[in-house]
């Protein structure tokens, strides 16, 4: 967004900075400083709302780096004519003109993936309002004032019900997601067995910004031992492989895979990238220590989710499991059960289209001593929205005033999303040539 200035502006776009929901009707005003408008030679003013998918892929050919770009509109831009010099009869210096647009249904969420070393996004889904002052003449560029805003899909009735059920305490079916491996202490020796099962609510997708209950069971089995061998060594420490007994020892993250393409001069260029969101376990379901604006400025590797709730850890007593040859030899089995809540970050919900798609998976890393012995458990998941479309006429209300009650919808996007024109300045002629996606 352009920096604020105390100097009077010819065009001022007034639009409440909220996350919008697909299908919502949005309202605002455009203020015109008529003396400045006339001085600048502006003859007409229109307001445009647009949504685009844009990709950039960088390729190096020898010592030359080339940027391959593709832009696809999500819908035909909406245009509202606000003012014309030929029909103007205002005597005041400042005139205000209202506008009203309805965001189309079934739109993807705002999205932005940006390489660490680039200031411009590599892949983005972007929505904006733009006031365009038309200046006739070949050498007179039109005046533009743009406001970028966030959009998220509207949750269905069943998704809203699921999110509310999560908040009240899940009582439905569960789905277990197992992983196992064989590890050993050092290069030589017999293998031990480690396994884990992550149990989540059995749903086709999980809501963002709602507490998600989960249970993680970690089980270890020692290598074959004599029955006289105890599950602890002479110093009282559990023998290898000892399962973790504190939640802080586990690493829980939400991994995202982003795939995007760009067709340029008949050639199709493809790219695939990964980033992650850390799911930190803390107390409470709200965080007042970091503002949404601050979260947006953090790299993907350190962005935090809204804190999750208290957890419970249950450590079972070691269990002796006799071998096939009787009770003389066998293994010690130990299990630890972690029960807690995770709150998925305000990440864009899962989406897939012609030139851009992204998907998510939960990844839990369970540490064990030794190089390469950590057990990783990965579970593909779908994210769904958890906010309803506000009713018509509620554009100036807060989300706390709109039923069903709940936190305002949020998205966690990098600063590059908010850059005017996404780092590019398209002329009117270029905009007319853009290919329509839907």
Automatic annotation (TrEMBL):
GO biological process, one term: ubiquitin-dependent endocytosis
Biased composition (Basic and acidic residues): 223-236
Every Arrestin-like N-terminal domain range: 12-154
Superkingdom of origin organism: Eukaryota
Region feature Disordered, mapped onto this chain: 223-249, 278-297, 411-438
One Gene Ontology CC term in the entry: cytosol
InterPro entries: Arrestin-like_C (IPR014752), Arrestin-like_N (IPR011021), Arrestin_domain-protein (IPR050357), Ig_E-set (IPR014756)
UniProt GO molecular function: protein-macromolecule adaptor activity; ubiquitin protein ligase binding
Lineage, top ranks: Eukaryota, Fungi, Dikarya, Basidiomycota, Agaricomycotina
Protein name (database record): Arrestin-N domain-containing protein
């Amino acid at each position: 967004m352009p920096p604020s200035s105390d100097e009077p502006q010819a065009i001022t776009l007034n639009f409440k900075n909220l996350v919008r929901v697909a299908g919502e009707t949005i309202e605002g005003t455009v203020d015109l400083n008529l003396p400045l408008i006339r001085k600048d030679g502006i003859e007409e003013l229109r307001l445009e709302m647009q949504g685009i998918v844009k990709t950039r892929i960088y390729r190096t050919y020898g010592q030359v780096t080339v940027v391959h770009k593709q832009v696809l509109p999500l819908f035909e831009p909406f245009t509202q004519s606000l003012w014309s010099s030929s029909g103007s009869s205002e005597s005041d210096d400042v005139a205000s003109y209202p506008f009203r647009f309805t965001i189309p249904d079934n739109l993807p969420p705002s999205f932005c993936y940006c390489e660490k070393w680039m200031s411009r996004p590599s892949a983005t889904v972007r929505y904006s309002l733009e006031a365009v002052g038309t200046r006739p003449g070949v050498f007179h560029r039109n005046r533009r004032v743009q406001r970028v805003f966030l959009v998220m899909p509207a949750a269905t009735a069943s998704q809203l019900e699921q999110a509310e059920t999560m908040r009240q305490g899940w009582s439905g079916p569960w789905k277990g997601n197992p992983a196992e491996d064989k590890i050993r202490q050092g290069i030589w020796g017999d293998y031990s067995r480690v396994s884990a099962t992550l149990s989540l609510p059995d749903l086709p997708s999980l809501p963002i910004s709602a507490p998600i209950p989960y249970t993680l069971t970690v089980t270890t089995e020692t290598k074959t031992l004599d029955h006289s061998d105890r599950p602890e060594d002479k110093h009282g420490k559990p023998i290898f492989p000892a399962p973790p007994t504190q939640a802080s020892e586990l690493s829980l993250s939400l991994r995202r895979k982003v795939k995007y393409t760009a067709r340029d001069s008949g050639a199709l260029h493809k790219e695939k990238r990964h980033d992650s969101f850390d799911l930190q376990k803390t107390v409470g379901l709200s965080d007042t220590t970091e503002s949404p604006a601050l979260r947006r400025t953090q790299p993907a590797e350190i962005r935090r989710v809204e804190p999750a709730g208290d957890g419970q850890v249950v450590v079972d007593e070691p269990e002796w499991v006799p071998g096939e040859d009787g009770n003389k030899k066998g293994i010690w089995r130990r299990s630890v059960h972690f029960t807690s809540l995770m709150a998925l970050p305000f990440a864009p919900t899962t989406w897939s289209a012609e030139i851009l798609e992204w998907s998510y998976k939960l990844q839990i890393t369970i540490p064990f001593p030794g190089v390469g012995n950590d057990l990783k458990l990965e579970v593909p998941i779908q994210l769904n929205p958890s906010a309803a479309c506000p009713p018509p006429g509620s554009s100036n209300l807060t989300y706390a005033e709109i039923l069903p009650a709940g936190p305002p919808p949020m998205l966690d996007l990098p600063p590059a999303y908010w850059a005017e024109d996404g780092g590019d300045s398209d002329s009117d002629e270029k905009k007319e040539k853009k290919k329509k996606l839907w």
